[in-house]
Amino acid sequence: MSALGKEAQSLSIQDFEPYQIVYLEATGDRLFSEMVQMAEGKQTCWVRPLVLVFDYYQLSDQPCEWFDLRNGSDLLCPSTLFQAALDTDVIPFLSQLPPLVQGGRCDRAVQQRLNQFMRRLWEIHSDAFHAS
């Protein structure tokens, strides 16, 4: 790859910092995660899920449905799918999280909701998963 091609590629991939809050979005649902590490040479990010929010953009008086994922598994996903979260996007959910139980496990039903979200994300962006 030419130097110009490498420069263009590096500009198209956002560099995230460890501990930065990022999100993935699929059909109006958002998965907020903490950045652990960007894989060097690959377009992949290692993240630690925090909160999965359903119907993020709903315009009703009812609060969004959300799930605490802090005791779940880490994920590897294509870096091109992540966006940096604004404080105002995530603080309303993080402020409602209960204290973290060390050694706790993610509820099976919550893990299934995450799996469904990731399946939808893969269906929408399958080309990004194949490229990484």
What does this structure look like?
This protein is of the alpha+beta class and 132 residues long. The chain is 31% helix and 29% strand. Strands 1, 2, 3, 4, 5 and 6 form a six-stranded antiparallel beta sheet that branches. The radius of gyration is 16 Å and the shape is globular.
Question: How many E strands?
Answer: 6
Round the mean pLDDT to the nearest integer and report it. 82
What is the CA-atom radius of gyration, in angstroms?
16 Å
Task: Sketch the topology as an H/E string, one letter per element.
Answer: HEEEEEEHHH
Distance between the termini: 17 Å
Major sheet details: 6 strands, antiparallel
Concise synopsis of the structure shown:
The chain has helices spanning 3-12, 87-94, 108-124, 126-131, and strands at 21-26, 29-39, 44-54, 65-68, 75-78, 83-84. It has 132 residues and is an alpha+beta fold.
